[in-house]
Amino acid sequence: MRLGAFEVNEPLPDLKDTHAFAILRPWIDAGNVGSLTLSWLEKHTGGGRIAELSRPGSYFDFTRYRPVIYRSGGRRQVVVPNTFVTCGRQENGPDFLFFHLLEPHMLGETYVESVLGLLEKFDVKRYCLLGSMYDFVPHTRPLPVTGGAEGKKARTELERAGVTPSNYEGPTTILSLVSQRAFDSGVETMTVIVHLPQYTELDEDYIGVLRLEEIVSRLYGVPVDQGSVERAERQREFLSTTVASNPQMQEILEQLEKTCDAGERKGEEEEEKDEPRPLSPKVEEFLREMEKRFRRE
Question: Which residue of 70, 81, 257, 283 has the fewest CB atoms within a 10 Å radius of its CB?
Answer without folding.
Answer: 70
